[in-house]
Amino acid sequence: MKPPPFAYRRASSLEEALRLAAEAGEDAKFIAGGQSLMPLLALRLSRPSHLVDINRLQELGGVHQENGALRVGALVRHATLERSPDLDGPWQALREAAALIGHYPIRLRGTFGGSLAHADPAAELPVVSTALQATFIARSASGEREIPVSEFFAGPLMTVLEPGELVVEARFPAPSPGTRSVFEEFSPRAGDFAFAAAAVVLAADDGGRVRNAHIALGGVAAIPVRAHEAEAALEGEVLTGSAAQEAARLAAAGCDPSGDAHASGAYRKELVATLVGRALSRLREER
Amino acid sequence: MTSGYIGVSVERDDLAFLDGTACYVADVDREGQLYARVVRSPVAHARILDIDVAEALAQPGVVAVITAADIPETRIPIRLPMAETPYTHLFLQPPLAREVVRYVGEPVAVVVASDPYLAEDAAELVDVDFDELDVVSDILSATTQGTPLVHAEAGTNIVATVPLGYGDVEAAFARADVVIRDRLRMHRHTAVPMETRGLLAEMDHGTGVLTLWGAAKVKHFTRSALSSMLGIERHRIRLVENHVGGGFGVRGEPYPEDFLVAFLALRLGRPIKWIEDRAEHFVATNHAREQEHDLEIAATADGRLLAFRDRAWCDQGAYVRSQGILPALLPALHLPGPYRWEAFSVETRGVLTNRTPVGTYRGPGMTEATFVRERMLDKLAAELRLDPAELRRRNLIRPGELPFSFEPAPITYESGDFPAGFEHLLDEVGYDDLCKQRQVRRASGEHVGIGFAAYTEIGAIGPFEEARIVPRSDGRFVVHVGVASLGQGVETVLGQIAAEKLGVPMDAVSIDHHDTEKLADGFGAFASRSTTLAGNAVALAAEDLRAKAAARLDVPAGEIRFVQGQVREPSGRTIPLAEVGEGRGRFDKPHPTFSFGAALSLVSIDRETGLVKVLRHAVLHDVGRAVNPELLRRQLAGAASQGIGAALLEELLYDEYGQPQSTIMADYRMPTVEELPDIEVIVEERPNTANPLGVKGGGESGMVGTPAAIANAVADALGVEGARVWRLPLTPDRVREMLRHH
Amino acid sequence: MPHVDQHLSGDWLEADESVRIRLVANDQELPVEAPPRCTLADALRDNGLKGTRLGCEQGSCGACTVLLDGRPVRSCLMLAVQAEGGRLETVEGLAAGGELHALQRAFHDHGALQCGFCTSGFLMLAAGLLREEPDAGRERIREVLSANLCRCTGGGPILQAVLAAQRELRGGRG
Ligand SMILES: Cc1cc2nc3c(=O)[nH]c(=O)nc-3n(C[C@H](O)[C@H](O)[C@H](O)COP(=O)(O)OP(=O)(O)OC[C@H]3O[C@@H](n4cnc5c(N)ncnc54)[C@H](O)[C@@H]3O)c2cc1C
Ligand code: FES
Ligand code: FES
Description:
Chain B: It comes from Nonomuraea phyllanthi. Chain B is α+β, with helices and mostly antiparallel strands. Chain C is of the alpha+beta class. Chain C is 29% helix and 14% strand. The radius of gyration of chain C is 17 Å and the shape is elongated. Bound molecules: flavin-adenine dinucleotide and FE2/S2 (inorganic) cluster (2 copies). One FE2/S2 (inorganic) cluster is lined by residues 54-57, 59-64, 74, 76 of chain C.
């Protein structure tokens, strides 16, 4: 279980990283926290010709709130998000999701950009990014583009990123007033990838009537998915227990997870109802 | 004349583990060593058409590549005569597959290179052309008509049938008021010690001796197996044990790699190192436990057990390895358990499947048998509307009935007090109070359940152990034994026995179990036998030494003392210790000892997610006599933790093509501190009448009743749906499934 | 031999070309020579620091945990070249001046080890945690310890040991 051979280069600036990746060609890869790439290398499921190390790119490291919007740099470690007390209200789901990723040492190294680019269907950050409607800024030697989260994931461990293209930042639009978010997941053992996960973002008016709802699910499809019927059912309603229950039911009904050796499709579907239900009842109680 | 060490929790010297200086086999390096990498079959069953090693051989750093064509036709033998049959030789494993591969992970070739990275690179380039065959992927289909044969030459997938009987079963069933019958399945799982296996072999060209580091558990057997397989004399093979990162029954058996690494060291004349990686470990190291039972029990309306019938299919995997038919034999011996049956008939079968071979894992056979029997007893209790504790009370064999024998089945209980042990467990955990708590918690909407299990555990399997005590001129004593340390603290325990019996301080005694060179014979650390067999051998060796010393001074053995390198008698006469020679002891144990144990578990279930949480877990074991109570408690607690993992999380899954689904640790879920409660351990000491020290086995028993107790607790918590608990592990998905169909 | 910092001069470290990597472990320079693909764990072990164990080599068990700049990392999930410029601590450096660290003593006292294979990793994980969060509560400590696996003890005694060491390190307060 030793990594296959590759050439290595540590980039000292963003420009350099992009240039190096371009120069090294199709089979080059970036390495950030290494918490997903290193296991893949050990199992020889990934065989890059070159690794461009982006860990020293301080320009990718910040979490900024401006005019209600949020920007998270690609190199922000999970542990940094987990420990950002100002990520509350509309951003709470982000902090909660980060705290549920793997284990403490994993979170100290793993990065936001790495988690997005790795695109595990059960990973927390892609799900929460989906619910919070992030846009990702991707750069390569030939330029920059913005990729809405809804277009970013292409399948399990697949994204639309081109070789040499680096996620530099995730941007989250300013939420409407009264927006709150929570994250729920279920895994059979501490720190494992979730069997299913749900991020719920709700904006409610002063009377408690839901103005808009975003529900994203993980672990139930090849990529994170939105629970559109459940969202629609909540909008315009007061979040009562029965409204929550109905939304949870619709969220489950609207997805069709396939099973694997560890959890069947039917089970994952049940989990969706449970998790969405729990998320909504927390939003009800924590008002 | 004793120094009072036996029964005292003497602290273990564990400094080397704390400061990082402990030396496991991966930490041993020899000048000029090369690294071996095993090429393994990616398919479960296929004919090998061709193996092309040319490209691998041409890689940088590669020194050699071998296939079956390069090694002698030889197979790994079975260790214990009791585990052999006239047919088992048909199913033994060759070190490298010849013509046919029979499971994913079977060794096909070995690449040797100057560096482990390069060896792995080259191993990927060994090109094997397979013609795939149909696969036996499940124990039940192994014996159906028209099924593929794992070993075509043998004409059957049945390795062995173990029939056991006692009393008149038909008559007992005819008298029964209640008969219940069910299928119960224990799943494939295994030890997964934190250290993988590893070996390092070196030929000393001067002395002609081949040294092998990394052997454990059954060193002396591995040595004789290698001697016959390699065709070199036993005394030219030396096995050295290093620190060992957990054994639990799977480490230290002779495996294909033991032969291969030794063979390569001889062939290439250079030290060869092989460290199993974790993905290999999941397909190469013995699996355990998978079996299905069709069990029927008969009882009277007032809850008296009459008889049972059991037919079982026990997975052996694709080959019979060194543990022979133990996977089928040991469950049979443990099915009756501590209860007073009038009759039973058992037929367990060892069957072959195209999957990793099965060996023994902590509590082998007993854990499986206890699960199926205890689960059925709870079903019977439910049927009779009887408290499950009461059902057991009514049927446990009483002390007055001991020794109790199920002859002609080879099961005899020599000593103990089963009902008292069971009550002790209930008292200790406060069973009545726990039942009230359950009531209260249920009323508040929680789904909690209590479950228990009682069992007998085979321990101290013979045939014998030897010990040698060599006094040194500086007044110290070196004790040579043949058992291995597998992280159990056996050195400490044997040191206590030696010191007490010699009448010297513990720091005057050192235990040497590392080296086959120092002791002629020994059988190793399995079946909780170290303390009983080696312990008694050490005690006998100490007595022998005292007797020899006393004879020299012509006084009774009780009167001499060992002081400062001298033997002294009461009137003050002394002789130098070095003149006495050495003490030798051999303890024979033709019949195994059975000891009693029980477990109790309190669980809660999240009915929405199916997650089971163990709130309390207690294990009780009668160890006869606890030489070191604290070390024993730790072992019992550790074993129970593994049992909780087995009951709830761990499973080695395969798909219908015989492809393993759990080949990385992330897919084989061992419990972490978050999943485990504090384990409550109760040690009973009812001295064994069958050996001078009075000890019984102990190292495995925390495991034995644990899956059964948890399964029963989950069933209790589930209520009506609980009747559906028939197999393990009780993963959240499975728990939900049971709830869903109602 | 090329050096890891040669990117400054604009070159790649070629695959399987041995490079000189200056690691500093336990305040000592470790003159490592290894190709870029060499993991930090292997580099430490090949250069005398064998107390760092390998239980899985893919991030699941934690046996290889060391401290990098004071924080626990899994050394099988890093390349040796990546650790250059950082400050490494391994189990060999835990006992200062021959005196065992409070954690080491507590592990002994609480039976937190049997075979000892997981011990180095747990010690370093706990050392990193208690340094960064000296007042971590029981639940937090338990959560963090779930990062590593101990097959022999299950981990309960390890939790007890870490709590005891924490009490001692805080001078008995709290
Ligand atoms: C034991 C364990 C448990 C884990 N549990 C979880 C879990 O529960 N949930 C979870 O979500 N994750 C889990 N992870 C994975 C962890 O979250 C990773 O940190 C994350 O998935 C990848 O981030 P990284 O920075 O480590 O990326 P790396 O491993 O460095 O890279 C991953 C991939 O992303 C690419 N990449 C990295 N950064 C960028 C970028 N900025 N732009 C473009 N491509 C990039 C790399 O080329 C590579 O292909 C676990 C890992 C381990 C070892
Ligand atoms: S060896 Fe690094 S986590 Fe297991
Ligand atoms: S002490 Fe053996 S794995 Fe922890």
